[in-house]
Structure formats: structure tokens, C-alpha cells
Specification:
Elements lengths: L1 H14 L7 H6 L1 H19 L9 E3 H18 L18 H20 L1 H9 L10 H16 L8 H8 L11 H32 L1 H10 L12 H6 L4 H13 L5 E5 L5 E3 L2 E3 L4 E5 H5 L20 H4 L23 H16 L2 E5 L7 E3 L3 E3 L5 E6 L2
Antiparallel strand pairs: 1-9, 2-5, 3-4, 6-9, 7-8
Helix pairs in contact: 3-4, 3-15, 4-9, 5-9, 9-12, 9-15
């Protein structure tokens, strides 16, 4: 592991001067986050409305988290959610709701096919055969209708990603404006990267806390107790107010134990190179494991223990927990290829956890089987995590 450690520590030092998104921009988009999280809160209140304390109300937390993440990405990318939490109530530019609702499925299914076929396509390309991939026709038509509507409407002011691509997006490798297909390709990758990663990380946070009652109790005691009518806690509040420090520590510890991307790979150039005493041939993919590094006792004592106190600011608050070694911590990668959506991810993770735990107490259902699987990202085996949900007041 020394070669991976050296490599990652070098990237960490480079990353200290690399800021990709300003908090001002994230705060400007905060109303979109608040809308989607508000829908999730309303759904849980509807489930628990009128229930006695002894009543058992069960919801699929993983599906809820994935749904709110998709709706946030839909609002921020397309200017409209995908109806994952509340159902859509009106047509959009004349298209059927069925088409719009199918966009996330089409994207995930299509990207899965693309990743499965990547080596086959590469082999066929070597034989001079180009295997083409395309999205469902109705999905292309739906997004093309939005692109055309936005292009005609010059005073459209929604600062989402789609508008950015329409106004100033260029095709990779040239200065030609993006066409609809280019835009779909880019937004599909962003939709996957921005929903699977955050929903998976938040699920791991809830999973750890629900399995360690004393940590969950400590977190709940640190948070305000809110009702259905209280405003949604916004991004700026949850990242700056002292009452959310322990929540922040819990999220950081979750990212240490469960980095959503398990490794980082880079391909060597055209020449042989030396890395930590090894001679690496040209064109070789070299990967370093974040998970292995984060769980290395040399850098994180008692590495398998969920110990949020590691991340608290002063020694007294840490209560015997070791101070974290930041040169061995890469939940969002590092260097110039680090996650461009890091601040958006932080805003979503903090806001979802703060608003849910301020209003509800959650418990695992009995005989729950939890297993992790590495797909494109680390996910629960069957994509489900059922929990009992109760109002805090």
C-alpha cells in the first residue's frame, strides 16, 4: 500500500488550493434543495399522521433518499424534478408524464449497458467495427423539446445546467456548440454521479446511526426538534451553526468508512515510469483504494469503529478519539480530477440528514439483511433499506 499512500498524499496537497464551486452558488440553488427535501418531509408526515406511538410505520429509506436525490438533480439540471417523491401533476411542454418519469430509468439502464459494453466496444473498434449506442427515442425527443423551448425563450432565467449547456456548451475536442445528443450525454453522466453518490452516502450515514443507538441519541440531542410547519433547514444554516457540528462529524466519519467510490485509477503515459520503486509499463491503469487507505490503522486508529468524535474540533470534545489524519482522507478524490460537485453533495447530505433527524426518529426493521455491493458506486445489495419512522413530537 505505500505506493497508493504516497500517490494520494501528493494529490491531497495539490487539492488544498483547488476550489471548484463557491458556497454562494450552492446557496443560490438552495431553494431547489429545500423544495425537494420538503416533499420528502411531507411524505413522511403523511405516513405518520394520526398514528399512535405504538403503531409501526415503515418506509423504504433507500428508495426515499434515491428519489429525493433524483428530484434535486432534476431541478438543478433540467429545471424540473422527476416526480420521485411527489407525483407530477401537469404536463411539461406537451409531453406525457410517462416519458418524463422514465428519464431516470432510461439513463441508468443506458449507462449500465454502456459500461458493460465498454470492453466489447473497444475490442470491436480495434477490428474496425464501431458499435453505436443511443438513448430511447422518446427520451431524446422529450429533452430536445426542452432545448428548443429554452432556445426560443431568450429571457429564460433559470440558472440550471441545461441552460448553461444551451448558452455556452461546446463539444469535447472542438468549439462547436453542443447539440441535443451532446447535452443528453453530459446530463446523463451528471445525473448518475449526482444522485447515486449522495443517496448512497446518506443511506450509509443512517445505517451506521441506526445500528449504534448511543451515537444516534447523541445526534438527536444535538439537533433542534422541528414540526411539519417549520421551515426547511437551509444549507448555510446547517454548515455554519454550532448545533450541527456533531451531524457534520457523523457525515465525515461515514465518508471515511464508506467512500462511495472505492478507488481512483489513472493510466500511465507513453513511456515507462517509476512509482514507489515499481517500473510501470506504458498505458497501464494504476489504481489506489480509498477504502483500504481510510481503514488503515496507521492513519485511523480503530479503523472499523464508527467514531464521529474524531472530527470534532478540540481535544475535550473528541473525548479520547484520535484526531483525523487529513493526508489520508479522500472521500471526493483529490487534485485536478476531484469531484466537481463536492459542495452540492455536502449541501444535500447535510440538509437531508438535518431535516429528517430534526423531525423523525428512525429504527431498523426486524430481521433486516444489509449487504454492500460494488457497482459503479458502492450500494446496498438490493437497493432497499426499510426503516420504522416516528415523529419526534
Amino acid at each position: 500500500m505505500p505506493s497508493a499512500t504516497l500517490w494520494l498524499q501528493t494529490l491531497w496537497r495539490r487539492n488544498q488550493a483547488c476550489e471548484r464551486h463557491s458556497w454562494d452558488y450552492v446557496d443560490e440553488q438552495g431553494h431547489l434543495f429545500e423544495k425537494c427535501i420538503g416533499d420528502l418531509i411531507a411524505k413522511n408526515y403523511q405516513l405518520t399522521k394520526g398514528k399512535a406511538k405504538t403503531d409501526v410505520v415503515v418506509t423504504d429509506l433507500m428508495m426515499d433518499l434515491h428519489g429525493v436525490a433524483l428530484d434535486i438533480m432534476g431541478e438543478c439540471s433540467f429545471g424540473r424534478g422527476f416526480g420521485q417523491t411527489p407525483p407530477l401533476k401537469e404536463e411539461y411542454l406537451g409531453m406525457e408524464d410517462r416519458i418524463w418519469l422514465q428519464i431516470p430509468h432510461s439513463i441508468f439502464h443506458g449507462l449500465t449497458r454502456r459500461y458493460k459494453m465498454v470492453y466489447v466496444k473497444r475490442w470491436l473498434r480495434g477490428l474496425g467495427i464501431k458499435l453505436c449506442f443511443d438513448w430511447p427515442a422518446d427520451m431524446i425527443q422529450a429533452i430536445d423539446a426542452i432545448v428548443k423551448e429554452r432556445s426560443y425563450c431568450k429571457d429564460y432565467s433559470q440558472p440550471d445546467l441545461l441552460q448553461h449547456f444551451i448558452d455556452s456548451g461546446t463539444r469535447p475536442g472542438s468549439s462547436a456548440p453542443m447539440n441535443t445528443r451532446d447535452i443528453i450525454d453530459q446530463l446523463s453522466e451528471i445525473l448518475l454521479a449526482g444522485s447515486e453518490t449522495t443517496s448512497g452516502t446518506i443511506a450509509c450515514l443512517f445505517l451506521e446511526l441506526l445500528h449504534i443507538p448511543e451515537k444516534k441519541t447523541k445526534l438527536l440531542d444535538s439537533l433542534p426538534v422541528l414540526t411539519a410547519t417549520d421551515p426547511i433547514i437551509n444549507s448555510k444554516t446547517v454548515r455554519t451553526e454550532p448545533e450541527f457540528r456533531y451531524l457534520d462529524a457523523c457525515i465525515k466519519e461515514t465518508l471515511r468508512l464508506h467512500p462511495i467510490a472505492s478507488e481512483m485509477g489513472r493510466k500511465t503515459g507513453k513511456d515507462w515510469c517509476e512509482l514507489a520503486g515499481y517500473s510501470i509499463p506504458p498505458g497501464t491503469v494504476v489504481s489506489a483504494s480509498y477504502r483500504h487507505l481510510h481503514r488503515n490503522p496507521e492513519f485511523s486508529p480503530k479503523p472499523l469503529k464508527f467514531w464521529p468524535e474524531r472530527w470534532l474540533e478540540n481535544e475535550k470534545a473528541r473525548d479520547g478519539a484520535p484526531e483525523p489524519d487529513m493526508s489520508a482522507y479522500y472521500p471526493f478524490s483529490a487534485g485536478k480530477h476531484s469531484c466537481i460537485g463536492i459542495k452540492c453533495a455536502w449541501a444535500e447530505m447535510r440538509m437531508v440528514a438535518a431535516n429528517v433527524f430534526s423531525r423523525f426518529d428512525l429504527e431498523d426493521t426486524r430481521n433486516l439483511h444489509i449487504d454492500f455491493r460494488q457497482y459503479i458506486t458502492m450500494q446496498l445489495e438490493n437497493g432497499s433499506h426499510k426503516v420504522v419512522v416516528k415523529q419526534r413530537i
